[in-house]
């Protein structure tokens, strides 16, 4: 192959182009955006408490997560492969359908924070606030009688689980019209993964049925409940969750959380059997 | 005879998956992981030897007494398990037969009653000669040990697990946790997120996910949510990871990892030990 020698004119043009490029201000590369959706399996703890509105988002990009801490002036983009958390200006965080869209990199000069991993927990300090990301099951449990409204306000995984469930409308109608006096005592635990899967479905059923004849009592059970005094004792509760159904003051049956269980169908069948 | 058959069935079923039996022994919290891994195979061998002794009549009264002692031990352990709130399966008949502790105690009491009756009925029967009996028991012990050691490598997964080509994901009881499997193509990875090698597996699976035309990957693990979180932070998987109730997932494997391709809600192919090559998974049209 014969190479054509460069002419002096070409050399000059090339040098001029380089000089112009060198004089240009350093422009940040246009950041692409990533879509993030809330992941309610994780809780955001800020300074030892779990503020309402603090959310953990999983992105569609590998190893990238967005953390919204309302007390922080910026959003926080955690990049696991590059082992850092970057501050994302809030005006660059765009709400989308149920989630947010954020740039996949922070602007130049934005603060970055180091994080550490301790088993299932990620911890870091941002804007002088200690933040931990931990599985929701690791949060301090709710123990004893619990009000449904307080439960859904405190535990997003229950609130969102209820929203996500679509119970069978026919079964809901049957439960809603049941004429007998029913008392349901539900023993569950906020640290129990079966409860996290099953209880929101059951609570959605209770909420949709709106039957004034059904009284629902919720009891949060502590870890090692067999050895701890509380309303769960003396009631032969061996599994969590245990949902005790009483009709006209008499215990009829107990519902559990078998895989694939549909609480509205199960409850409607119980009511059908006790007419 | 009946008791011998029961012990034989129990021993063989446990021997199909000795690691799972060791896990079940460990769950009682009496022995640690290391000791459970040693006691479990020994118990399987003991049960099989006792079964043969009862069936062929080697020292019948002594074998009957041994059976009663073993059953009494099982009843005590099960009662202890109940007292500490253990509600899972006992593993008495391996991983594939599941009963509550209460059912197990009732059964063991029944079997112990049978053994007492057998002792009474066997009074005066000398059984096999001592020399021949010793040879039979030694042979049984050696064969049982060989079975326990070799069974993890035996190609018996299609017969002892529910995972089989053609099965629907509904049959595998996975639709509750993974409804997306009912449509399209998916590569499902059954992984133990606590296994240090899971990070390497995740790297391979990340490579598959990044290839255009490759099916989405879904990892299912019997680990806890805490273990899943630790895996998420260390392996940074580019695929969804779900923890599934161990009792549900255990029916699909003896050893992890295991992988299977799902097409339109049915198992299309199974890969043991390592994920398939990405090229083998590419569809003609990018998904």
CATH-level-4 superfamily name of the largest domain in chain A: Glutaredoxin
Helix/strand/pairing class of chain B, anyone? alpha/beta
Main beta sheet of chain B? 5 strands, mixed
Q: Class of the largest domain in chain A in CATH?
A: Alpha Beta
Mean pLDDT of chain A comes to 89
| N- to C-terminal distance of chain B | 59 Å
**Can you list the strand order of the major beta sheet of chain B?**
4-3-2-5-6
The Rg value of chain B, from CA coordinates, equals 23 Å
N-to-C span of chain A: 95 Å
Largest interface: A-B, 26 and 25 residues
Poorly predicted ranges of chain A: 1-6, 20-29
Succession of helices and strands of chain B:
HHHHEHHHEHEHEHEEH
Helix percentage range of chain B: 40-55%
Number of helices of chain A: 6
The general outline of chain B is elongated
Q: Beta-strand level of the residues of chain A, as a percent range?
A: 25-35%
Principal-axes shape call of chain A = elongated
Mean pLDDT of chain B comes to 85
Number of beta-strand segments of chain A? 17
The Cα radius of gyration of chain A reads 28 Å
Number of domains of chain A: 2
Characterize this entry briefly.
The complex is a heterodimer of chains A (275) and B (287). By secondary structure, chain A is α+β, with helices and mostly antiparallel strands. Chain A has six helices and 17 strands.
Structure description:
The complex is a heterodimer of chains A (275) and B (287). Chain A is an alpha+beta fold. Chain A is built from six helices and 17 strands. Chain A folds into two domains: 33-137; 144-273, 3-Layer(aba) Sandwich (Glutaredoxin). Chain A has helices at residues 8-23, 148-154, 156-164, 169-176, 193-209, 263-273; strands spanning 33-38, 42-46, 55-59, 64-68, 74-79, 84-89, 94-95, 100-103, 112-113, 115-118, 121-126, 129-135, 144-146, 182-188, 214-220, 242-247, 250-255. In chain A, the strands form three sheets. Chain A has an eight-stranded antiparallel beta sheet, with no helix packed on it. In chain A, 33% of the residues are buried. Chain B is an alpha/beta fold and 287 residues long. Chain B folds into two domains: 2-154, no CATH class; 159-281, Glutaredoxin (3-Layer(aba) Sandwich), CATH 3.40.30. Chain B contains eleven helices and six strands. Chain B has helices at residues 2-15, 18-26, 33-56, 60-83, 101-121, 130-150, 157-160, 198-209, 225-235, 246-249, 278-281; strands at residues 92-95, 185-190, 217-221, 240-243, 258-263, 266-272. A five-stranded mixed beta sheet of chain B has the order 4-3-2-5-6. In chain B, strand 3 (217-221), helix 9 and strand 4 form a beta-alpha-beta unit. In chain B, helix 1 packs antiparallel against helix 3 (33-56) and helix 3 (33-56) packs across helix 6. Chain B is elongated. The N and C termini of chain B lie far apart (59 Å). The model of chain B has no long low-confidence stretch (mean pLDDT 85).
């Amino acid at each position: 192959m014969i190479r054509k020698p460069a002419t002096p004119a070409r050399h000059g043009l090339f040098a001029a182009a380089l000089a112009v490029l060198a004089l240009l201000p350093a422009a940040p590369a246009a950041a692409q955006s990533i879509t993030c959706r809330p992941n309610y399996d994780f809780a955001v703890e800020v300074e030892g408490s779990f503020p309402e509105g603090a959310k953990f988002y999983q992105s569609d990009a590998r190893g990238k997560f967005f953390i919204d801490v309302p007390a922080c002036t910026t959003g926080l983009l955690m990049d696991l492969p590059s082992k850092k958390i970057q501050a994302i200006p809030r005006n660059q965080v765009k709400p989308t359908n149920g989630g947010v869209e954020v740039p996949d990199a922070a602007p130049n000069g934005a603060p970055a924070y180091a994080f550490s991993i301790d088993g299932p927990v990620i911890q870091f300090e941002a804007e002088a606030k200690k933040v931990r990301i931990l599985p929701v099951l690791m949060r301090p449990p709710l123990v004893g009688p619990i009000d449904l409204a307080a439960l859904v306000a405190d535990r997003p995984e229950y609130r969102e689980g209820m929203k996500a469930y679509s119970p069978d409308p026919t079964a809901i109608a049957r439960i809603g019209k049941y004429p007998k006096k029913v008392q349901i005592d539900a023993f569950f635990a906020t640290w129990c993964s079966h409860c996290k899967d099953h209880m929101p479905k059951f609570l959605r059923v209770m909420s949709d049925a709106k039957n004034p004849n059904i009284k629902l009592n919720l009891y949060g059970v502590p870890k090692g409940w067999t050895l701890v005094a509380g309303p769960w004792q003396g009631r032969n509760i061996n599994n969590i969750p245990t949902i005790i159904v009483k009709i006209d003051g008499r215990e009829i049956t107990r519902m559990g959380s078998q895989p694939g269980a549909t609480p509205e169908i199960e409850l409607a069948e119980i009511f059908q059997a006790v007419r | 005879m009946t008791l011998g058959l029961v012990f034989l069935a129990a021993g063989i079923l446990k021997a199909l998956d000795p690691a799972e039996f060791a896990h079940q022994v460990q769950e009682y919290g009496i022995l640690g992981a290391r000791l459970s891994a040693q006691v479990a195979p020994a118990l399987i061998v003991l049960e099989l030897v006792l079964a043969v002794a009862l069936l062929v009549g080697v020292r019948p009264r002594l074998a009957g007494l041994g059976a009663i002692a073993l059953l009494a031990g099982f009843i005590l352990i099960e009662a202890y398990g109940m007292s500490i709130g253990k509600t899972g399966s006992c593993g008495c008949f391996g991983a594939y037969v599941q009963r509550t502790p209460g059912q197990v105690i009732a059964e063991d009491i029944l079997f112990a009653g049978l053994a007492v009756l057998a002792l009474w009925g066997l009074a005066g029967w000398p059984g096999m000669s001592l020399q021949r009996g010793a040879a039979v028991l030694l042979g049984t012990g050696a064969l049982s040990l060989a079975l326990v050691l070799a069974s993890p490598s035996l190609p018996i997964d299609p017969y002892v697990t529910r995972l089989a080509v053609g099965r629907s994901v509904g049959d595998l009881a996975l639709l509750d946790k993974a409804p997306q499997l009912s449509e399209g193509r998916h590569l499902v990875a059954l992984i133990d997120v606590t296994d240090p090698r899971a990070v390497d597996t995740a790297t391979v699976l990340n490579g598959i996910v990044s290839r255009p035309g490759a099916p989405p990957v879904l990892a299912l693990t019997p680990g806890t949510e805490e273990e899943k979180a630790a895996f998420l932070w260390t392996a940074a998987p580019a695929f969804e990871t779900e923890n599934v109730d161990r009792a549900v997932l255990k029916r699909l494997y003896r050893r992890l990892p295991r992988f299977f391709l799902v097409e339109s809600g049915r198992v299309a192919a199974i890969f043991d030990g390592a994920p398939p090559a990405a090229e083998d998974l590419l569809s003609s049209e990018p998904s």
